[in-house]
Write a structure and sequence with these properties.
This protein is α/β, with parallel strands linked by helices and 449 residues long. It is built from 19 helices and 13 strands. The protein has three domains: 160 residues, GTPase HflX, N-terminal domain (Rossmann fold), CATH 3.40.50.11060; 164 residues, Rossmann fold; 76 residues, Alpha-Beta Plaits (2-Layer Sandwich). The structure holds guanosine-5'-triphosphate and magnesium ion. The site of guanosine-5'-triphosphate (GTP) has 23 residues, from α10. Guanosine-5'-triphosphate binds next to α10. Belongs to the TRAFAC class OBG-HflX-like GTPase superfamily. HflX GTPase family.
């Protein structure tokens, strides 16, 4: 059901004209301006705004004063009057001065894409962590845009949602905002500390962590729900999920993992938001495996995948083990299906098909436990056993008469650092690095106590 959103001053519902400026520079980006504008319509509707009309201007570059050309401002004014609009939403980020000038000229509320996304986040935030992060993002966005003029400030801060920084905070001056930002950062450090402790506990217990990432609306929460019966919010809307949810799940071989669903990404995700959501997004950086969920049926599939790749890069999580989960294949035609890459790092699924989900869990298992080696170590070689623990995670051990069998998930880097001296004790030696087998360092070291 559509939410009714009131602005900070009263009970007026937002009726908006959406405006996009297409400049030469923007033409070079991956997303077409039409798609971007359609996405802006979805974002506005998600925020509870009634979209009256959309408007596009093609222009060499943005106007520093008005953003769009002065003539277009006049046209927009007429359109707003005619349709009874009280808000103009721009598909790009505006400067504080542009917002003020447009407000003066049009006498309606001016919102840009960044602020709209921040508003949706503010409406969605439920947990303490989410609320802190959104407030931090909003204030970081607001600070450089303050003009010191009461009316404009209140409009800037007000946004669309009732849960913007809040009316009382609109009175805050720069100094107070800076202080509040420091305070929020301090509180978020606490959150990070708690999360780290949680993760470390899981790590100690040998539980793998798997993070679901992807463009908003790709089906991340659906996959988590279908796999774990988790009571998570699934909705055909942008940014349905804001706060991370973790659920444990047993892989086909019996190994327990924890899967975390988190906030979706979107093109031009506000930088302040990514920075503020570090605590939440750290789950992705710390995961043993990242599942990149893709809406395969989207015409913008590859562009969306690129956005996700870029955000992962920004977070420093791009080098993680990854499986691309091409979701929603039930909505794809044969031609679309053919275009999806098929390799060992990707799985095609429909989140509502159990057989597909089972294949997904096997793929996860393969990725997590794939590089598992078994070693037979003489029972009296405590030194070698100690080394085993240094090259990876010992998953299982079994006593034989005079030796011990260890199943280890080997970390390639640590194994290399150890000089491969354990290779002589490996049961299946097919994966032994060749340069080492040749120079024989393994055998030399083994007898060197
Ligand atoms: N047909 C079809 N619909 C799907 C599939 N997976 C998810 N959906 C639908 O896609 C919509 C979005 O799903 P969510 O799971 O909320 O997506 P999300 O990635 O968590 O989205 P955000 O939390 O907004 O980032 C919902 O309406 C789901 O029912 C699928 O495999 N096939
Ligand atoms: Mg979700």
């Amino acid at each position: 059901m559509k939410q009714t959103i009131h602005d900070v001053e009263g009970t007026m519902e937002e009726k908006a004209v959406l405006v996009s400026l297409v400049t030469n520079e923007l033409k070079r980006t991956d997303f077409s301006s039409e798609y971007s504008l359609q996405e802006l319509v979805n974002l506005a509707e998600t925020a509870g705004v009634e979209v009256l009309e959309t408007m596009v201007q093609n222009k060499e570059s943005a106007d520093t004063k008005w953003f769009i050309g002065k003539g277009k401002v006049e046209e927009l004014k007429m359109m707003l009057t005619e349709l009874g609009g009280n808000t103009a939403i721009f598909d790009q980020e505006l400067s504080g001065a542009q917002v003020r000038n447009l407000e003066e000229a049009l006498d309606v509320k001016i919102i840009d894409r960044t602020q709209l996304i921040l508003d949706i986040f503010a409406q969605r935030a439920k947990t303490r962590e989410g609320i802190l992060q959104v407030e931090l993002a909003q204030l970081s966005y607001l600070l450089p845009r303050l003009s010191g003029q009461g009316k404009n400030l209140s409009r800037l801060g007000g946004g669309i949602g009732t849960r913007g920084p809040g009316e009382s905070k609109l009175e805050m001056d720069r100094r107070h905002i800076r202080e509040r930002i420091s305070e929020l950062k301090r509180q978020l450090q606490e959150v990070v500390r708690h999360r780290t402790l949680h993760r470390e506990r899981r790590k100690k217990a040998g539980i793998f962590q798997v993070a679901l990432v992807g463009y908003t609306n790709a089906g991340k929460s659906t996959i988590l729900r279908q796999l774990t019966n988790a009571d998570v919010y699934v909705e055909n809307q942008l940014f349905a999920t804001l706060d991370p949810t973790s659920r444990s799940l047993e892989l086909p071989g019996g190994k327990e993992i924890v899967m975390t669903d988190t906030v979706g990404f979107i093109q031009n995700l506000p930088h302040d938001l990514v920075a503020a959501f570090r605590a939440t997004l750290e789950e992705v950086c710390e995961a043993d495996l990242v599942l990149h969920v893709v809406d395969s049926s989207s015409p913008m599939r590859s562009e969306q995948m690129k956005v996700v790749g870029d955000v992962l890069q920004e977070l420093g999580a791009h080098g993680k083990e990854q499986i691309t989960v091409f979701n929603k294949i039930d909505l794809c035609g044969a031609a679309e299906l053919e275009m999806l890459t098929a390799d060992s790092d990707s799985v095609r699924v429909s989140a509502y098909n159990n057989a597909d989900l089972e294949r997904l869990t096997f793929a996860i298992q393969e990725k997590l436990l794939g590089d598992t080696k078994t070693f037979r170590i003489p029972a009296d070689r405590g030194d070698l056993i100690a080394k085993l623990y240094r090259i990876g995670d010992v998953l299982e051990q079994e006593a034989e008469e005079e030796s011990l069998l260890f199943k280890v998930r080997v970390n390639a880097d640590d194994y290399a650092k150890s000089g491969y001296m354990l290779t002589a004790y490996e049961l299946d030696r097919t994966a032994v690095p060749s340069q080492n087998a040749e120079d024989g360092t393994g055998t030399v070291e083994v007898f060197d106590r």
